[in-house]
Amino acid sequence: MTDSCAAPEQGGALPASVDTEKETVLQGRVLAGDAPVGGAYVRLLDSTGEFTAEVVSSADGDFRFFAAPGDWTVRALHRTGNGEASVTAPGPGVHQVPITVG
């Protein structure tokens, strides 16, 4: 049986094919204290709060979205708690978004 989610593999190094001078990448790690939280549903919301995308964090708590420049909210939902962070991505590049749940 295959996973029905079409989201790319989360975590690890950014693929070499990604041109960070042209693409806007929002990535980070979901944490509970200092411990990574795997299996969290991580949602990307636009500047109006509208749902845009969702991925599941890797076993190491990592997640990644490819987005347009702008203001975003990243929300993590997990059985141990929820958390969110705001990020402004003024242009292409890698923008780090750490999220703590609790």
Descriptive report:
Residues 1-20 are annotated as: Disordered. Pfam families: DUF1416. 22% of the residues are buried. The chain has strands spanning 24-32, 35-36, 41-45, 51-56, 62-67, 70-78, 81-89, 93-96, 99-100. A hairpin with a 5-residue loop joins strand 3 and strand 4. The termini are far apart. It is built from no helices and nine strands. It has a domain at 24-91: Immunoglobulin-like (Sandwich).
Which structural traits does this protein have?
102 residues; disordered N terminus; Immunoglobulin-like; single chain; mainly beta; 51% strand
CATH superfamily of one domain: Immunoglobulins
The overall strand count is 9
Q: Summarize the biggest pleated sheet.
A: 5 strands, mixed
The first-level CATH class of one domain is given as: Mainly Beta
Q: Give the overall shape, derived from the CA principal axes.
A: globular
Strand content: over 45%
Low-confidence stretches: 1-6
The number of helical elements comes to: 0
Distance between the termini: 33 Å
Please tell me the CATH architecture of one domain by its name: Sandwich
Structural class: mainly beta
What is the succession of H and E elements?
A: EEEEEEEEE
Measured as a percent range, the helix fraction is: under 10%
